[in-house]
Write the structure tokens for this entry.
Amino acid sequence: MKFQKICVIGLGYIGLPTASTFASHGVNVIGVDINPHIIDTLNKGEVHIHEPGLRDAVTKAIASGNFKAATQPEEADAFIIAVPTPFQENKFGEYNGITYKLADMRAVTSAAESILPVLRKGNLVVLESTSPPRTTVDLITPILARSGLEAGRDFHLAYSPERVLPGQILHELIENARVIGGVTAESSEAGKDLYSIFVKGQIIKTDATTAEMVKLMENTYRDVNIAIANEFSRLADKFGVNVWEAISIANLHPRVKILSPGPGVGGHCISVDPWFFVEAAPELTPLIYHSRQVNDSQPHFVAETVKRALGTLSGKRIAALGLAYKPDVDDLRESPANEVVHLLQEKGAQVLAWEPFKPEAKLPGINMADSFESAIRDADALILLVKHTEFIKLDPKEIAQKTKARILIDTVNGWDKESWKTHGFEFLRIGDANSNHR
Ligand code: SAJ
């Protein structure tokens, strides 16, 4: 199948890079978003998202004449749906005494509905949004049938998850393997033709529900693996072991790859996607459910460790370094660092936070410092919550002169214990609170 014009619905972290990559490969792209502010920003040549290389890619795409942003889909050869699938705010599911979160599929539903007036015979529709198993078959297919056309007979329909890592999106979009799950073999083939325009990685064809499950399995695997690392960090504290040393030794085993403990799991993917499995089959998912519980409770473990280190939190001034959900990104969504700050405050600490990637961020109940220097100057303790490169590079000698604090708490294994101790700091690391090892 040939694609001259495509419509990408949803211009967020995935839709915008995808749209600009298609445009830079010669396809005429209409980028659609319901937020008029995003459309104005893009049509002025500005970008509303921080992602390395994205501003440049979008500017070039607009200048080439191949990319235009609009609030409504237009007729096109293919439609890609890349809208968010968050949780429902106030509704939860219950099963045998457990409470689980529910997916909010309203954005996917209205994106599919917005295609109805412009859907034509021979088109391809691809859902990219991370979704509960069977969404393509049970939710999208009946919505699109309202056009009078049937998926798999009159037009092609496929699910193709994005699997790119924030911070490396433009590179991974092209290089990663891509899964295309069609509702028919012809739909998978049409999807393969579309993504072959720029994907250099392997393109694997399967059915729609398998592709949905693959995506959820990847992020769930990571969540469960991080949960066990976090549980190991608690055990290490109990037994006087340095968990970081123990994990690095265990990982020398050829069939072991334990991930890293930390303050918890954030972002809009790994802390969300496992719930789609729990919602779809709570009776089959005790491990996935409990892993979510472990990761969600890790900020409490961190706050308790800080309390132990300082004796009391009451009246203590703490500088919180980093609020992003992971290193070197400006995304503060579902960030465990944020949660740690709130818990420290609830226990009586006065916290001043510094996030170099979003210094202007306004977060409810969090006091943001106006500079790194002012965050640390009068603090009693510094807590490292995100492994941003610029934090890792800090020079202990210089910091010792810039802050009154003499206690450091490292939640991400970002700092070298000995160098900080040499400069007069008391050093405490998560999962290494009671060991005498390095
Ligand atoms: N984290 C740990 N320990 C680790 C690794 C990560 O605590 O060893 C934490 C991070 O600090 C962060 C969270 O987990 O708070 C998630 O970060 P991440 O880098 O693991 O993943 P995301 O959410 O940025 O991106 C993931 C990726 N999925 C996988 O690696 C399987 C990405 O490929 C997906 O495209 C993305 O989710 C998505 O959109 O679903």
